[in-house]
Design a protein that fits this description.
The complex is a heterodimer of chains A (285) and B (224). Chain A contains 16 helices and 3 strands. Chain A folds into 2 domains: 150 residues, no CATH class; 122 residues, no CATH class. A 3-stranded parallel beta sheet of chain A has the order 2-1-3, with no helix packed on it. Chain A is mostly helical. The chains are: A mainly alpha (285), B mainly alpha (224). The complex binds protoporphyrin IX containing FE and iron/sulfur cluster (2 copies).
């Protein structure tokens, strides 16, 4: 990693302290081969488009006094024996700050490093904003860097694939509508072994509650569905699940800042709620 | 060099026009920067709809009280130094007897002033706090990692008016008049740079806190 820094001409001191074990991820290792400095520059400038939609990352950059008081908030920093390279402000310094300072003119290798920091070393949990005396929104800043990476295709393969699935099927794990309905009916039978005549109502118009699981539940954790059915039945709740696409509440688009897919997922759920005249939407979390 | 600085026209320039320019740039620049940021924020879809006066004031007030927020309590030394430093920084110049005398001589108005002894102690506190900040930048690893030349520069800009004022009062190191001229130059420099450097955190503090306070308060949670 330190070699990259020398080539990049970043203040070397920083990057020598940035020691990470290499991790193989084709989402980074393969896509980085297709990148050029020109492409990166174009994307960085399009996303950061200074002057428009910029208040939320310019205000923090111009305010941050580099006091590092935010570091105590971050579980990455705390769980790495207070390694300064995991401090929230350090992550902004090493990514967004450098991209702005160099107007996006950075090498693909540098960008790969940036992607690793914003995807794999921060959860965008926003705890640091509760510890910064200025309440600076660091998660938003790093989220914007994730968007740059996403547009460049530099995204961990697993989460990118799930986002592709969402954009094609509105669920996270490539389930067809048939798989989904079949799974619900199968789980209904399973629960009936314990509770007599239990139902998992599908597409029941006018129900109080529409439950939207995560795609992983029908795919690999079907017992969650059985448990939810038991709880709903015992609690006497008038509930249903949607038969049509837009039943999955996992929103990987949000995590990688694929705003287009993110909006379609949310919209899918709202559309179903309107179609079925539901009072409340309940999500798995 | 000494003769040049001692020339009365330098003193007159520094005391008159320079201070005027500094105040105009400080006030004009501050209004300009705040206006720019407020207009920029208007273009964002999700800033204005969440802004709430009550929640903003709640957050601001909470963070302006020492040891009130969790992070203030977790770092008692930094908290004490930060508050002492900023109280001195803001209160001392406004309520200093010598400053009041100058204003009285010019405009015939004056207000409540600090005693000379207290002023001296406050100046020493501000100077000590600056040294603490500098040491923290050198020795605390998480701070050192994000420290660059500009961080020392803005620290020096805050430090210089106080150290020169302190030395001028005690008439140490340099002849009184020269020290006073330096003090006025550095004081003006600080005022001029506040809106255009990260010393502007003084202005944006109220905006960024208001935003985070509203954003969290809207979700029925706190930001401290
Ligand atoms: C009145 C509004 C102000 C507020 C609310 C404010 C708030 C803060 C806060 C929360 C910090 C970080 C805490 C720390 O580093 O210990 C800080 C640091 C600092 N402030 Fe202010 N500030 C204000 C005005 C000023 C002014 C007018 C100046 C000087 C012109 C100034 C100079 C500094 C400096 C130099 C630091 C950095 C210390 C370091 O190097 O770590 N502040 N301020
Ligand atoms: S948002 Fe990121 S940097 Fe901030 S505390 Fe959470 S994980 Fe750490
Ligand atoms: S606590 Fe806030 S001002 Fe201080 S370094 Fe972190 S983000 Fe910057």
């Amino acid at each position: 990693m330190a070699e990259v820094s020398v080539k990049e001409g970043v203040e070397t001191r920083d990057w020598i302290e940035l020691k990470r074990k290499p991790v193989a991820d084709i989402g980074f290792d393969e896509t980085v081969k297709n990148l050029t400095t020109e492409k990166i520059e174009k994307v960085v400038n399009a996303v950061l488009n200074i002057g428009k939609n910029a208040a939320r990352f310019m205000a923090p950059l111009e305010t941050c006094i580099h006091c590092a008081l935010c570091s105590t908030a971050c579980h990455w920093y705390l769980s790495h024996d207070k390694d300064p390279t995991y401090a929230p402000v350090a992550k902004v310094k090493m990514t967004l700050w450098e991209l702005i300072k160099r107007k996006g003119k950075v090498s693909p290798e540098f960008m790969k490093q940036v992607a690793r920091i914003v995807f794999c070393e921060c959860n965008l949990c926003r705890r640091c904003s509760m510890y910064c005396p200025f309440g600076l929104d660091i998660a938003y800043q790093l989220g914007m860097v994730r968007r740059i990476c996403f547009i460049l295709g530099l995204v961990p393969q697993n989460i990118l694939d799930q986002t592709h699935s969402l954009s094609a099927t509105l669920n996270q794990l490539w389930l067809t509508q048939g798989d989904w309905i079949d799974t619900m009916q199968w789980q209904e039978e399973e629960v009936r072994a314990e509770i007599k005549n239990v139902r998992i109502p599908i597409d029941k118009e006018g129900a109080d509650v529409m439950w939207c699981p995560l795609g992983t539940e029908p795919k690999v954790a079907t017992y969650h569905i059985a448990r939810t059915a038991k709880i709903m039945n015992v609690a006497g709740i008038d509930w249903t699940v949607s038969a049509q696409d837009g039943w999955d509440s996992a929103n990987m688009g949000m995590f990688i800042r694929d705003m287009e897919t993110m909006q379609r997922v949310v919209r899918g759920i709202y559309d179903n709620a309107m179609r079925l005249k539901i009072k409340r939407v309940v999500l798995t979390e | 060099m000494y003769d040049f600085i001692k020339d009365p026209s330098i003193y007159n320039f520094v005391r008159g026009p320079l201070v005027w320019i500094a105040f105009l740039v400080f006030i004009g620049g501050s209004i300009y920067k705040i206006r720019e940021m407020v207009l920029l924020a208007k273009k964002e879809k999700v800033v204005y709809p969440y802004m709430d006066l009550k929640l903003s004031l709640r957050s601001l007030l909470h963070w302006l009280i020492p040891f009130n927020s969790r992070n203030w309590r977790l770092r008692p030394v930094v908290t004490t130094v930060t508050f002492l430093f900023h109280i001195g920084l803001v209160i001392l110049p406004v309520f200093l007897l010598a400053h009041n005398v100058l204003i009285y001589e010019s405009w015939g108005i004056s207000w409540w002033t600090l005693s000379e002894g207290l002023s001296d102690i406050m100046a020493m506190i501000v100077i000590g706090c600056c040294i603490f900040f500098a040491l923290r930048r050198i020795f605390a690893p998480e701070v050192r990692f994000v420290t660059f030349a500009d961080d020392y520069l803005i620290l020096a800009i805050a430090f210089l008016p106080f150290i020169t004022g302190f030395l001028a009062y005690h008439q140490w190191l340099l002849p009184h008049k020269i020290m006073v001229i330096l003090h006025m130059i550095f004081g003006s420099l600080m005022l001029i740079t506040i809106p255009f450097t990260r010393l502007g955190h003084m202005l944006y503090f109220f905006l960024t806190r208001a935003y985070m306070g509203s954003d969290q308060g809207y979700r029925h949670s706190k930001d401290w």
